[in-house]
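pinned: reference chain
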Amino acid sequence: MPKILHISDLHFGAPYLQEAGEALQRIAPSLAPDAIVVSGDLSQRAKRHQFEEARSFLDRLPKLPMLVIPGNHDVPLYRIAERLLNPHKLYCELITPDLNPVLSLDGIILVGLDSTSPRRAITNGRVHRDQLERCEKIFTEAPPETVRIVVAHHHFAPGPDYLRDRTMPKARRAIDCFVDQGVEMILGGHLHRSYIGNSLDFFPGNHRDRGIIIVQCGTTTSTRGRGRERNENTFNVIDAGPDFLSVVHYMYFEARGEFAPVSQHVFPRLGRQLDAPPHVSGQSFAQPLR
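pinned: its structure tokens
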């Protein structure tokens, strides 16, 4: 089944870190992904030259199916009239006109959700009922064994640390809908630090036997890392098998000038159990931070 390269929070503009960006360009082909997901904040201040730089960066990645969604930094903050009247104008012109894209791969379907809310909640974002209904329609039409993945910039579950970020309003409503729809994984960004866990860590949910795997990506190419990933850059690689989902977490090592894997997380698919660890879990990724 397909392998997905998950990057996020590129922040082209002043925070962009060229060394990390070049390291990502070098390693991406060797990972042999089948698709690339970019979960928002391609720019720092939604300016034309920043989107142009982001577009050039994406074009230099391997020529693969790509799902890209906007983040809150991809709508103008201080250009008030533009934010109110046409907040995604430059993003749609230079990145993609589809704000809620869908990507179908062999055995996997990814539904991207525009969680930006330029007029009401530019920081915390929103996912609306009509978006949840669209997800239900798409997932219902997918074959039963399909891996169902949601991609949104803003986080549905808080980071498990002292920073205590506020989640999106009505995040529990969305999680309950996703569980009912058979969603197995949510990919996100925004927090500028990584978290790989389960929705049951935070929300009791309406199905105690199955939560949703939460995969938050830190900032892949900027200086805006927070918490334990302050001054760090990260991305994830998701691998799907018939019985398990695997997430390998990569971090940029400045002294070596390269990204390297630092941890792996293996989860059983819905209705399965890992009677024996899959072969990938035998790998060890312990790395010194510097």
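why pinned: The CA atoms of residues 91 and 97 lie 7 Å apart. The chain has a mean pLDDT of 91.
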